[in-house]
């Protein structure tokens, strides 16, 4: 587009000049065309707006639409792929915080407080001035077997791979992490020089494709892993079991986005779609998974190692917990990805209809770890449409120690949700390998916006925590959050997601909500043993065989 604009401008100026020499009154055409050419030249070299940098003159139509029809724009342009607004206000708040623009609103709440699903935080008469609180709350990640625990921000960049995102996007994200003293998850696409060059802290994610640490046949290469895992910027290792966008499916990178550089980093072939297997080949049982975790921890020099999953069969997660108890090997953290999460390419049915939503999954994982008395060793990270301070607060209340954001960070980069992530034609240069489009994303400007968004979002959460009369995110619990369930029924998170007693899964009888899944799960296999369910009673509930 940049080359086309320059070429077109030269042609237009040359044509008008020749015409004016033949017919002098034509010189007035410069009065009409000239300002657009000047504007286009300015657009080409300005650094604040990717869309007009890539699409000079025409890119301004987007901002004109915002000004003329803000509500229509928010609904149709700032909506999810299924037409449901990603909380119509959230994106504008992200943009404002990234640009450090005042994000306050007049005339009270813009949400319907009587609509089912409306949620709020109970405040305290004894509120605490947020200026007296820690503006950068942190969490120490590292269990009893970890030799290099990491002091993490409570809000970090979620997994997005180089390949899915452009080189400039990765540089800006990691540069923002460096500026703001938080961490950047690589995604499963491998550890590249673009992740390392800015100097920000790294969570290295290893998916089923084992990119950057694989043999030619796709199996795990322990030597290649060890070489990269000991790099000082790599602070934590995350094994990806599944992700919210397409759980049970495996990652997808279309062939159009596989450049020679990406093929080199991922150790894959060019000209082919890069599709990760749906499951791991390095381990096949919960017990083997614990051994794999310990081996990676040893090879990394004792850094925190954990895993990420979108919860599916509850019995499988309970089998993993049983394997922890049996082996005495504990992951240092668990990332819970909600089925509503995801920023890249995925089949529509998987995005919409596979995987447990974040709230239910987060509560279940916290309760399971508490029931096995494992939570004391393990930090929980929540991921899935986390974009505001209230999103952080809700997840903390359900049991998360930290949160990751992908979508919010993309918006801070300038993403306008053009929905062309899988086509290599992203107009803002965020999700493309097209060099001409990538130039629109100026790293020096966007890394500051990423850091701003991180800082302002945490500040918002800290203010809400202070308003509730609390000191730290760890002080939040389920009774603090209320949800309108129906027109005349309001419940707290503790009523919607009742706690189970500590150690209750190590004793019998188990809490009723866990009884069936505890019976059919085993540390020796991920496959549930349904033979232990003898029948189904008249209410539809399974009954355990004697």
Question: What do you see in this structure?
Answer:
- This protein is α/β, with parallel strands linked by helices.
- It folds into 3 domains: 2-77, no CATH class; 130-486, TIM Barrel (Alpha-Beta Barrel), CATH 3.20.20; 502-544, no CATH class.
- It is 38% helix and 13% strand.
- The protein has 20 helices and 17 strands.
- Helix 4 (60-68) crosses helix 5 (70-76) and helix 12 (314-327) runs parallel beside helix 14 (358-371).
- The termini are far apart.
- Mean pLDDT is 85; it is low at 69-86.
Structural class: alpha/beta
Number of domains: 3
From the 3D structure, determine the CATH topology of the largest domain.
TIM Barrel
In percent terms, what proportion of residues is strand? Answer: 5-15%
* Cα-based radius of gyration, to the nearest Å: 25 Å
Continuous helix count: 20
Cα separation of the termini: 71 Å
The gross shape turns out to be: globular
Largest sheet: 8 strands, parallel
Arithmetic mean pLDDT: 85
Characterize the quaternary organization of these chains. Answer: single chain
Q: Which segments are poorly predicted (pLDDT under 50) over 5 or more consecutive residues? A: 69-86
CATH architecture of the largest domain: Alpha-Beta Barrel
CATH homologous superfamily caption of the largest domain: Aldolase class I
Sequence of strands across the biggest β-sheet:
4-13-12-11-10-7-6-5
**Can you count the beta strands?**
17
What is the name of the CATH class of the largest domain?
Alpha Beta
Q: Estimate the helix proportion, in percent.
A: 25-40%
């Amino acid at each position: 587009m940049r080359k086309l604009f320059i070429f077109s401008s030269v042609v237009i100026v040359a044509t008008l000049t020749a015409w004016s020499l033949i017919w002098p009154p034509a010189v007035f055409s410069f009065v009409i065309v000239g300002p657009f050419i000047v504007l286009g030249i300015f657009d080409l070299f300005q650094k604040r707006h990717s869309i007009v940098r890539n699409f000079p003159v025409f890119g301004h139509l987007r901002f004109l639409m915002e000004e003329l029809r803000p509500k229509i724009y928010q609904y149709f342009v700032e909506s999810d792929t299924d037409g449901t607004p990603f909380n119509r206000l959230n994106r504008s708040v992200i943009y404002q915080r990234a640009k450090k623009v005042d994000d306050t609103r007049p005339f009270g709440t813009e949400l319907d407080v009587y609509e089912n699903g409306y949620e709020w935080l109970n405040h305290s008469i004894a509120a605490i001035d947020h200026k007296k609180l820690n503006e950068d709350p942190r969490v120490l990640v590292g269990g009893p077997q970890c030799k290099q625990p990491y002091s993490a921000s409570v809000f970090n960049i979620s997994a997005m791979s180089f390949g899915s995102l452009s080189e400039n996007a990765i540089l800006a994200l990691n540069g923002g992490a460096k500026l703001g003293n938080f961490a950047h998850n690589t995604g499963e696409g491998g550890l590249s020089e673009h992740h390392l060059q800015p100097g920000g802290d790294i969570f290295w994610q290893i998916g089923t494709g084992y990119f950057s640490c694989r043999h030619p046949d796709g199996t795990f290469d322990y030597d290649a892993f060890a070489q990269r895992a000991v790099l000082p910027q790599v602070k934590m290792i995350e094994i990806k079991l599944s992700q919210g966008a397409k759980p049970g499916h495996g990652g997808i990178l279309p062939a159009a986005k596989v450049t020679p550089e990406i093929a080199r980093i991922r150790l894959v072939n060019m000209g082919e779609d890069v599709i990760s297997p749906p499951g791991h080949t390095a381990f096949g049982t919960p017990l083997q998974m614990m051994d794999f975790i310990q081996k990676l921890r040893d090879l990394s020099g004792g850094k925190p190692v954990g895993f990420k999953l979108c919860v599916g069969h509850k019995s499988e997660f309970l089998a993993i917990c049983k394997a922890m108890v049996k082996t005495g090997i504990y992951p240092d953290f668990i990332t819970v990805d909600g089925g509503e999460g995801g920023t890249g390419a995925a089949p529509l049915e998987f995005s919409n209809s596979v995987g447990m939503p974040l709230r239910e999954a987060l509560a279940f994982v916290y309760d399971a770890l508490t029931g096995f008395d494992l939570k004391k060793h393990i930090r929980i990270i929540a991921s899935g449409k986390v974009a505001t301070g209230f999103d952080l607060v809700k997840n903390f209340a359900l049991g998360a120690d930290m949160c990751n954001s992908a979508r919010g960070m993309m918006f801070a980069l300038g993403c306008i949700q053009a929905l062309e992530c899988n086509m290599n034609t992203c107009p803002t240069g965020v999700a493309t390998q097209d060099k001409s489009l990538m130039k629109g994303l100026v790293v020096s400007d966007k890394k500051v916006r990423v850091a701003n968004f991180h800082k302002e979002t945490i500040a918002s959460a800290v203010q809400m925590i202070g308003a509730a009369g609390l000191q730290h995110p760890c002080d939040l619990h389920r009774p603090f959050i209320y949800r309108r369930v129906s027109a005349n029924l309001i419940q707290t998170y503790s009523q919607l997601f009742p706690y189970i007693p500590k150690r209750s899964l190590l004793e019998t009888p188990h809490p009723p909500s866990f009884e069936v899944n505890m019976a059919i799960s085993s540390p020796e296999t991920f496959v549930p043993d349904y033979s232990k369910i003898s029948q189904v009673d008249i209410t539809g509930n399974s009954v355990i065989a004697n």
